[in-house]
Task: structure prediction
Amino acid sequence: MTILITGGAGFVGLNVLKRMLRVSDEQIRILDNFSNSTPERVDQVVGSAAAANRVQVVRGDIADAPAVRQAMKHIDTVVHLAAQTGVGPSIADPVRDLEINVVGTFNLLKACADAKVRRFVMASSAATVGNAQPPQREDMPARPVSPYGASKAAGEAYCSAFHRAFGIEALALRFSNVYGPLSWSKGSVVAHFAKQAIAGKPLVVNGDGSQTRDFLHVEDLAEVICLAANSPLPHELLGEPCNVATGVQTRIADLAQLFRRLLDERGIACTLAQGAPLVGDVAVSAPAVDRVKAAFRSVSFRGLTEGLPGTIDWFLSHLRGAAASG
Result:
């Protein structure tokens, strides 16, 4: 089987690639425009010559329909991770957000239908439901509060349509707040705090810090994605979204305090500061987890206190020297 991973050189993509090379024997094709990564990072994950023989890297953009059609040749399954991933950038440039997340996803699904691709696993987000009351279930109406959430909701709708119209086994996985190793270019709160601390800057908590997030370790997410790509899926999941989350919410203010304690244990002093609330920031992210626990029973999601220390150590190992030399 040959799997296409769009955005395979990005944060989640590299972790998925790493897991696939370790636990399966598929051929893997990566489609990435390298706007937020480098081919060298792919090489670092691939490592051995034997693994390199299983991986083909194609430079291309999902918004380029001909490039997508070319990359889709002889593909059985698509793991679609390429995206514009931030609320802030989507507000600054909603047209670009649409081009990548909506047009790009449509291009891939259309190419899948034409090439008779069997399965399509898409990275979506809890941002689709906006400030819905918790627990935020997958069957709640989409009421996004940012262009990013709207574009992901549109992608989910196209997954539903292409499943029902063309028989593609489509599944939209709604990631909660992902953190972990290999997050060089990640801009969400854990990565941002780590980069600020390494640079000797305060950890800025926007608003009053009462916002909650469900923090998901990237290696647990990669396990779910690999199962979604390779394993039989319940029929009722096809064409539908599925939250991927731990079921535990953490206030941003509490995350900052935990960060400060873990940094202090490593001999790094940091201070906290308060910033203005962010436009489009969801107050409570509390995805329901019944569906993911039923569909992926073998996955055990680690808590933030278990996953954050290793993440901080990864940042210190990979970015501290660069920050000092810069």
